[in-house]
Structures are given as structure tokens and as C-alpha cells.
Amino acid sequence: MSRRKPLIGITGIIGSGKSTAANLFRKLGAAVFDADQIAREITKQADVLQQIRQTFGDEVIDKNGNLNRQKMAAKVFSHPELLKKLNGIIHPRVRRQMWRFVEKMQQDQAVKMILIDSPLIYETDLHRFPDKIVVVSASTENCISRVMKRNGMTRDAILRRMEQQIQLSEKRNRADFVIENDGDLNRLAGQVKNVFKNILQQWR
Ligand code: ADP
After folding, report:
1. Cα(194) to centroid of ligand 1, in Å?
2. Residue 185: CB within 6 Å of ligand 1?
3. What is the pTM of this model?
4. Residue 1 pLDDT more than 80?
5. Which of 9, 92, 115, 171 could tie 133 with a disulfide, CB 3.0–4.6 Å?
């Protein structure tokens, strides 16, 4: 049996660059669980779609039977109680897949650490599980302009999503490592390398 590998949470606020940082960790030998991507896949499952339809009505399902993400986002990000309901459907399933991933990666010789990439680590009590948490931090203006460029979301929509997340200042205070991402991608890569090395050194 090989020794358990570090389980690391990586988070931030929307647009801070946590997925970009997670990809840099991956290049160094981390296995990354992308919670947002898994959540998107989960909303394609027939039983989940059925539950969503029952809870939110036909208007959030398009004519092909898929989730209309824009309509759903408009609903939940202006009504916190609806966001809670949606999370109640999605999060337990994400959590189950996460543990399966962690178990599998613990056995993989090539993996040096396991990263859980989620914007909601502190919001959904996921922070209880990792050995260390990395927060990727950037100014609100940088976050907004990066997301607008990434997928054309409006400034208002981004701000509404940010309002549902715990403030970056609090996340920074609670983090084990803070990565500053107001510089270029080289600066980000340098910090990721340092944090990666640091975690493995502390782990020995
Ligand atoms: P998050 O996962 O935190 O929402 P992403 O990692 O997807 O954020 O980054 C948001 C966008 O900003 C992406 O298009 C990414 O390529 C870009 N980005 C991230 N960090 C930087 C940086 N340091 N310089 C320039 N663009 C960046």
C-alpha cells in the first residue's frame, strides 16, 4: 500500500483563475476533480432532469429535453431559496463522484496530489475534507473582465453570481495558501509551482 496522497481544495471566486491554476497543478502531477464540470454532466442525467422539472417547472427544460442553463441561472441567481433547492439536487451527487475519484486517484502511482477544484468549497462545507486549501485571488475588476471575455456573461450576471459566493476577503483569511492572480500567466505558473512544492515538502 502506498502512502495516502495530499488532498487539496482549490477555490476562489468566479473569474479569479482557479481552473487555470488547477490546470497548472495538473501539469505538475496533480489529479484534478472539476466539480463544476461534473455538476454540468450530472444535469444531463434523466433522473436529475426529471427532478429539476418537478421542482422548477417545464420552462427550464428546452424542447429537446435538456436543461436550459440560461433560464435556470436567471432563476436561481436572483432567488437564493431556489439556488438552495437546485444545490440540494446536484451537490450530493457531485459529492459521491468526488469520493469515487479520490479513492481511485489514491491508488494511482503517477498521481502526486489530488485537487478538488470548486468555487463553493467554503459555501458547501467541502472545506472539512482537504488537508490544505488553496485560494486563488484576483481583484473584482480583473475577475469580471476575464469572465466577460471567457463566455460573454454580462457584468450584472457576474456580480449576481459573486453575491451568492462568500467574499474573497473571507476566503483569503481561511486559506492555507493564497495565490495572487492579478499578474500574467507566468506569474501564476510560478506561484503554482511554489505551492505544489511546499505542499509535498510538508507532506513528507
Ligand atoms: P475561474 O475558474 O476562477 O472561474 P478561470 O480559471 O476559468 O476562472 O479564468 C477565467 C478566465 O481568465 C479564463 O479565460 C482564463 O484563461 C483567464 N485567466 C486566468 N488567469 C489569467 C491571468 N493571470 N492572465 C490572463 N488571463 C487569465
Report:
1. 19
2. yes
3. 0.92
4. no
5. 9
Is the CB of 58 inside a 6 Å radius of any atom of ligand 1?
no
Query: In order of start, what are the domains of the chain with their CATH numbers?
Result: 7-203 (3.40.50.300)
Q: What is the DSSP pairing of strand 113-117 with strand 7-11?
A: parallel
Q: What is the dihedral of CA 186, 163, 67, 62, to 10 degrees?
A: -120
User: Helices H, strands E: what count in the chain?
Assistant: 9, 5
Q: What cell does 144 get? A: 469580471
Per residue in 67-90, is it b (16+ CB within 10 Å) or e — as a string?
Answer: beeeebbebbbeeeeebebbbebb
- By alpha-carbon position, which residue is closest to atom 24 of ligand 1? 184
Give distance in angstroms: CA of 56 to centre of ligand 1.
32
| 184 three-class SS | coil
The sign one gets for the Cα dihedral 100, 101, 103, 108 is positive
Residue pLDDT, tens place only, 43-80: 999 999 999 999 999 999 999 999 999 899 888 988 88
